[in-house]
Write the structure tokens for this entry.
Amino acid sequence: MTDDEVLEAARYANENRFASMVIQAGEKSDRKFIEDIERLLKEIHLLSEGKLHITLSLGEQTRETYQRWFNAGVHRYLLRIEVSNPELYRKLHPANPHHDYNQRLNSLRILREVGYQVGTGVMIGLPFQTWKILPMI
């Protein structure tokens, strides 16, 4: 979506008294993306007079980025852990160095430390998943 489309959706939500909306995208972390999200959050906060609550779901970011977005007026973040078993996590992301179980846990901790209301969750029915490891959820 373009910035104008995001802002139009926020206006619509605000005018129709929606309590919240979610901004969700891939795990981009370049400077332009971070700044664009921060600017959009500030604009949404202004157009709704702070009444429209935003939940972000933008993957793992740095503490500084989480703090910037929090300061811009967003206080909810959704970061799914996918699975709560480290071995299964590695099987699901074997060749991707950007997916690390411990880093994901650390990101969840950082979000809470910054002050976010954090949502997370796991997927059920994955390959290699057994009933034995589900109690770890």
Residues 35 and 68 are 9 Å apart (CA to CA).
